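WARN  no MSA supplied for this record, continuing single-sequence
INFO  ligand: iron/sulfur cluster
INFO  echoing inputs
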Amino acid sequence: MRDEFGRDIRYLRLSVTDRCNCRCVYCMPENGVPMLSHADILSFEEMRDIVAAAASLGVRKVRLTGGEPLVRRGIVDLVGMVAAVPGIDEVDMTTNATLLAPVAASLRDAGLTRLNVSLDTLNAARYKAITRRGTLADALAGLAAAHDAGFANTKINCVLIGGVNDDELRPLAELARDRDLTVRFIELMRMGECAGWPKGRFVSADEVLSAVPELVRVGGQGVSELYQAPGWKGSVGLIRPMTHRFCSSCDRIRVTADGRLKPCLHSAAEVNLRGLSGQDLAEAIRAGIAAKPRGHRMDNGRASDSLRAMNEIGG
Ligand code: SAM
Ligand code: SF4
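INFO  complex generated
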């Protein structure tokens, strides 16, 4: 289905939980946030029905996110249920990968297509400082297990944080030198925990091109601009929501763990999907797509208009 600005909406990001085993400094407060009760969270059946209604409107790709999707009990079953929805031809997941190693093969068997793994540093002490609770070795074990389970085209998501990891751009990019994966550098967005951070923390992804000058632009892939270096097996992506607004090509909608459709990550607008079924559910999703704004308004240091934190929406 096309929105008011002609964008063809084919991609649904579904947050399966607001809980997380980490507390990344830019995403969640150290002591966590008040969690939704189990009754407030969508059941697997409700999620499947939402995906089916979205598919009837043209959605073809679903990404399971969180919080941390791997803390949701029964996640492998949910992957199977979503993958079985007629019309859905891709089911992906965004994860911090610290809990991935034991379940990577089961996720693949259940029908998961691809993984995005969040990894902001290759330094163990720094990883602990950023995630507060995670362990770098667990995340790297998860990444290795994904490869062994047969996942291809894995993407590494690395959020740039000035003064924290911007001295690691080259080693992080070089993860793509000998491996078939894309390392994507993402500009930090002013929302939730980091909304009021000083300007110096917000680094342009152009810094990556200075750190790795041999990168050559080879095209685009959704919201990411793709680069390759001579002889490298994988690629580097830049996601620049702050310095290069890409709202005009945004083809996604989001659903929170408590069943609210968010037409835009950075808008306060939400449409309730809870308690709806059949045509009513499809109509509510249609209304959400119709309400998708032209773009975000995070210019000149202004923070996101979203009323929700990242762990509630899933990125
Ligand atoms: N827990 C999973 C993970 O970390 O991959 C999935 C949810 S997490 C909210 C999704 C992505 O959003 C992560 O890659 C994270 O680094 C990113 N993220 C969180 N807060 C952000 C912010 N303020 N700006 C840019 N990216 C952010
Ligand atoms: Fe958890 Fe992901 Fe947020 Fe980190 S970025 S606190 S791993 S939801």
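The chain has a mean pLDDT of 92.
INFO  checksum written, moving to next record
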